[in-house]
Amino acid sequence: MISDITADAENKMKATLEHTMEEFAAIRTGRAHPAMLNKITADYYGAPTPLQQLATFQVPEARTIMITPFDRSAMNAIEKAIRDSDLGGNPSNDGNVIRVTLPALTEERRKEYIKMARGKAEESRVAMRNVRRTAIDQMKKLEKDKEINEDELARSEKSMDALTKKYTDQVDDLLKGKEAELLEV
Asked: Are 56 and 62 in contact (CB under 8 A)?
């Protein structure tokens, strides 16, 4: 029973860590990368559709993203979605592809992105601590129902704390890497 609770908690923490990685990938750095477009959706025939389903992406230069739509009728919708997003780049359309040249990041914008990354990291740590609390509550209920004894409860609480520390440390490492990437000029 305890192993099931621990395994479930670890799976949830892994999922939280993966979500944090995706969130960090969407935060813009000085270089262009296709993951920046992951959260952007375009209005395609009246339905909000992720850009990945509408086009392919290439990064020919460090600050340029080239978007090739599968359906040329979606070009205006894609352009509008990019313009309305917080990317900061202005899309230009040559009839076949859309080019988005990203401006160089200012010091102020870098600090803003670092602040955003720290906020996302804290959200992730809070989510992991919530998973830990839920798992420990389940274990305490087992102890209360006399299915496990106090020693097993104490041991399992320590292992849950170690598991939580392992995953929150990974989030901290991701954050350090993202901050270094953002500060790189």
From this structure: no
Whole-angstrom distance, CA of residue 116 vs CA of residue 1: 39
Coil vs helix vs strand at 86? coil
Token couple for 43: 């209005």
Distance in angstroms (rounded) separating the CA atoms of residues 184 and 74: 35
CB 49 within 8 A of CB 80: no
pTM: 0.73
Burial 40-60 (b: 16+ CB within 10 A, else e): bbbebeeeebebeebbebeee
The encoded tokens of residue 140 equal 């305490």
Residues 10-61 pLDDT 10s: 999 999 999 999 888 877 776 777 877 878 888 888 889 888 888 998 888 8
User: In angstroms, rounded to a whole number, what is the distance separating the alpha carbons of residues 125 and 143?
Assistant: 27
Residue with tokens 């908690």: 9
**Residue 62, C-beta contacts closer than 8 angstroms, at least 6 positions apart:** 30, 31, 32
